[in-house]
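Quick check before the chapter quiz. The format below is the same one you will see on the exam, so make sure you can read both the input and the output lines.
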Amino acid sequence: GGGSDGRQSSRRRAGRPARCCASPSMASEESQTYTTSDEEVDVIIDENEVECFGPFCGAEEPRVEVDESHKGGLPCDKMMRVALVALFATMGSTLFGLDIGYIGPIIESQSFKRDVEHLEHGNVSSNTEGLIVSLFSIGAIFTAFPVISSYFIDEWGRKMSIMAGSLVFIIGSIIQLSCQGNTQLFFGRFVSGMAIGLLSAVIVLYQSELAPASMRGALSTLYQLGITFGILLAAFIDQLMVDREEGWRMVMGIICIPAACLLVGMVCLPRSPRWLVQKGKRKEALKVLLTIRSDAEAVKEEEEIFQEIEKSRAEGEPAWIELFQGRCGRLIVLGMTLQILQQLVGMNAFMYFGPKIFESIGFDKNMFTTINNFVNFLASFPAVFLADRAGRRQLMLWSAMGMTLACGLMGLMGSLYVVAKPADPAVPDSEPGWTVSNKSAGWVIAGSAFFFVFNFAFGFGPIVWVYCAEIFPMRYRARALGVTTVANWVGNFIIAQFTPMLLDAIQFSTFFVFGFFCFLGVLISAYIPETKGVPLENIQELFDRKVGFRSTMALDSKKTVAASGDRALPLIAGSESE
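Here is the expected output.
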């Protein structure tokens, strides 16, 4: 077929391996035509060829006719479409950022203390404040736990899981905004945490599975960008509303708006093509791919997904113990290490306790929060633009080195020039703090804090999520992502609980502890292979020559050969760089 402008379009015939039909009735004589946005391009697939593949069914080799006129790259309209889908899904991580950002000022507001804690004077007890933060993390750990998250992700699908998480977030917010005491508030915090736990497990997976290999890094980093935007937006909302009468209830109502938008908007977004193929809906998967890939790439990727799923089915339903064996087991350990390190480097210590720390050494806490949130948000953009250019490993390596330097400076200046100041008994509600004996040292500490946030935001913050969404084989991906996401939430819980204890016990030497974990981040970033531009189905092979994985290479190869029989295996499309 030529296009409407009279040009001739060149076509090629792509052969596909076959799959045996259960019965002849599964096949159909009808043909289905898929037409792309380019009028001169169409892909014709015979239903006989979609439903009946296999070396044993005796059917002719299936054929797919593909226009090659756009073979050079992804058309701009499709590139824009997949970017907008990923950007809209990012609203789920914005909900996470909103919760991180809004809860601190609400706890400090007089209206909240009176309505919920029934306090006319004084502060919320540290135990109650700890529960408000911790129950959210516990709720997130519950739904991110792989038995729970993998059920939703694999059975309901990525799209429906995001919609479910949005609905649960709205329910949790309504429970909180209508509370009159701690019991209902605690329950609402747990429910909201459940929503964010599920969303944190599925959003990056959804984005990475829709993204082409050339854009996967950039689109997956949008998850962290959404978090930082949510934190910034929450600070703005709190500034406007939280000091009003029952303003804290208004804030909790306002944050339901993006959750409702996500719930309704996801109806119009496509399902993951990998999930569709996994459920036997190959034609639907190809339809989705044709809207976000060039035609040749859509056909090729659908076939690669199908081959990987067939290989997994030949190996049988995976047992949970398999996650922790062979190459997948080593990848699980790597993913958990990255996610726990992302928390133990101390970023959330700055978010949770930074204002109090800097107020105690003479800085305005509102000014610190404003600058910190802007730095965090703006520094996330380099990750979006560089993840598919500089690569994941380079961003993580430079990020970890910058954080190590910042923590070292903060620990050194704090140890030399910051001294503990006890609470003043003559001042009601006075709390212990610190004083800085050298003004320049105070500015070095503040500058180092912002430098730390900058380095985290362009590297370790977003790229850890990208990397963990890429490295697991599809057979185990949902369960493995659940395990690594739980590790992140466990790290979050540890930071929330133990940072105040460390600050009380060793003061600013706490930043030497964070610096140690940052240095571990440098080592692991130098170790991992680069994954930019490599198809998801081929990434696991990049680890076969890495220390700790070589012993699993022969075992995984035997499993692959046994599962695939005499079929030729696809070659790795990418190789480890640098």
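If your answer matched, good. The first helix runs from residue 47 to 51.
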